């Protein structure tokens, strides 16, 4: 549920969750497939877990937050009838990755979802320890977990990988330069790996979110009440994102519907990156010049 906090204002529409794509009764899209989702306990990861489970995948959900992991696993089980396997622990810890590969076995799909832009701050006063922390949360585990699951996919001659990057890996993000750099690295890793492993029947793609209401970026909680009714005009798609938007994007990228799509980064951002540098002046006009905003 979107955490819309404003009484008296119309609640913005939410996409159908867990998926807008009807489930195929009898033989769901991902029947017999195993899908690993890191950070699947809350936010976008939870949206992905619920969508993949809805379409019949046996999900293996890894999260540092045991309560969130169990809550989402329970919800997915209730919706889809298949209980996700939960692995609790810090994905930055190689021992947890070993546990995850053990629990999942030869997975068909891998979704590297863990990432965090916090703490933010000017590069001018940042320290190497901050860069290392950002590296470990946004890139290092993506390499490690992928390296752990890839050999069995290659052996079997099929597999699908989706990495969560950000629109901030495609444009600058003032106050978060190191995070932006590692998210850009995820985009290039996705493209380079796709080129390498296409020969084994493995596709690798990325999803770049923006403005999605999650525990990490609680969009509504951060929107002053007096601007709440402006959101529909600021975001080209007319609303903030919902984890289910990403769930369906990942369903597409892991399904046969995208069989000729690999190495790409799909922006799931409601259109925010479609015209960067252009600012809305009023209901009809935009500007890319310094002008008073009305
Ligand atoms: N929300 C957005 O608008 C947005 C925008 C751009 C990019 N992203 C990217 O999408 C991904 C998901 O973002 P979100 O907003 O849903 O995040 P979130 O912080 O709301 O949820 C992250 C989940 O991962 C788990 N997690 C965090 N650190 C972990 C660790 N070390 N080991 C295991 N689990 C861990 C958390 O417990 C939580 O369940 C991230 O990679 C993020 O950078 C999100």
From TrEMBL:
The UniProt record lists the keyword Oxidoreductase: yes
Top-level division of the source organism's lineage: Bacteria
Keywords for the protein's UniProt record, in alphabetical order: Oxidoreductase
UniProt-listed Gene3D superfamilies: NAD(P)-binding Rossmann-like Domain (3.40.50.720)
CDD domains listed in its UniProt record: SDR_c
Gene Ontology molecular function terms on file: oxidoreductase activity
Protein family: Belongs to the short-chain dehydrogenases/reductases (SDR) family.
Protein name: Oxidoreductase
Organism ancestry: Bacteria, Bacillati, Actinomycetota, Actinomycetes, Kitasatosporales
């Amino acid at each position: 549920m979107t955490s819309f906090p404003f009484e008296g204002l119309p609640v913005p529409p939410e996409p159908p969750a867990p998926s807008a794509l009807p489930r195929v009764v009898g033989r769901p899209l991902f029947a017999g497939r195993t899908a690993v989702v890191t950070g699947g306990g809350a936010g976008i990861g939870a949206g992905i877990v619920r969508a993949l489970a809805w379409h019949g995948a046996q999900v293996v959900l890894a999260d540092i937050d045991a309560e969130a992991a169990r809550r989402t696993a329970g919800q997915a089980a209730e919706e889809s009838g298949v209980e996700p396997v939960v692995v609790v622990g810090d994905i930055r810890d190689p021992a947890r990755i070993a546990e995850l590969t053990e629990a999942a076995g030869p997975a068909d799909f891998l979704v590297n979802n863990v990432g965090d832009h916090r703490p933010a701050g000017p590069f001018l006063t940042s320290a190497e320890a901050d860069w290392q922390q950002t590296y470990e949360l946004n890139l290092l585990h993506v390499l490690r977990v992928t390296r752990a699951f890839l050999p069995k996919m290659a052996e079997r001659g099929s597999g699908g990988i989706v990495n969560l990057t950000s629109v901030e890996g495609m444009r600058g993000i003032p106050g978060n330069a190191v995070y932006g750099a590692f998210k850009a690295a995820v985009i290039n890793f996705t493209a380079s790996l796709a080129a390498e492993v296409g020969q084994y029947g493995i596709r690798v793609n990325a999803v770049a979110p923006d403005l999605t209401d999650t525990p990490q970026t609680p969009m509504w909680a951060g929107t002053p009440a007096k601007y709440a009714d402006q959101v529909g005009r600021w975001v080209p798609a007319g609303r903030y994102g919902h984890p289910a938007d990403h769930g369906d994007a990942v369903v597409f990228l892991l399904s046969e519907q995208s069989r000729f799509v690999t190495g790409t980064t799909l922006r799931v951002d409601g259109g925010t990156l479609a015209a960067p540098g252009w600012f809305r002046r009023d209901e009809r006009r935009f500007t890319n010049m310094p002008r008073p905003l009305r």
